[in-house]
Amino acid sequence: MDEQQIIAAQDAWGEGIIRIGETFLDKGDYRSAAEEHIHTHYNYQDGSVLFKPTLASERQFRTDYDGALSYFVGGNDEYPEDHGFAIKPWSEVRWDRVGTKIIGNMGVAMGNYFFAPADGSDEVKVEYSFAYTVNSDGELKIILHDSHLPYAP
Question: Is this prediction's pTM over 0.90?
């Protein structure tokens, strides 16, 4: 694993979020698009993932696949505050990377990412920390997704 692989994974993750929203707008199977996104980018195949999504406060810490899927597309009664982050939809995800640390089979990256709404309204700044590992199939996958809106006193 190296920093360029993490950057490529982040860019692909952002493209996946946009693709889910485009599928939603096209009245396609956005749930399947989100399932593919999670399978591609997160390491649920090898166990739990530590997932703390941006817009969650009631059940903000999630370790299972269903919690991640609910956050991205909504529709799960166990997570009533989820309205489908990925189906907002977004037209761009821009990364402002602060740093990356790689130790053995794990990499950690943090910074800000900015989401541009497809309706042309102001972009949303979000703080992130992601941890990556190389899974049993040799693929770079997310094992920690932690994001927050910036502190506003």
Answer: yes
User: Is residue 80 helix, strand or coil?
Assistant: coil
Residue 55, both tokens:
């817009």
Bond prior to 53 in cis (omega within 30° of 0): no
Tens-digit pLDDT profile for residues 29-65: 999 999 999 999 999 999 899 999 998 888 999 999 9
Give residues with Cβ within 8 angstroms of 91, minimum separation 6. 18, 21, 116, 117, 118
Is the separation of the CB atoms in 52 and 146 below 8 Å? yes
What angle, rounded to 10 degrees, do the helices at 65-73 and 30-41 form?
130
Tokens of 24: 């939603």
Amino acid in the structure at residue 131: A
Structural domains of the chain, ranges and CATH numbers in brackets: 3-148 (3.10.450.50)
The tens digit of pLDDT for each residue in 124-147 reads: 999 999 999 999 899 999 999 999
In this structure, are strands 50-52 and 140-148 parallel, antiparallel, or unpaired?
parallel
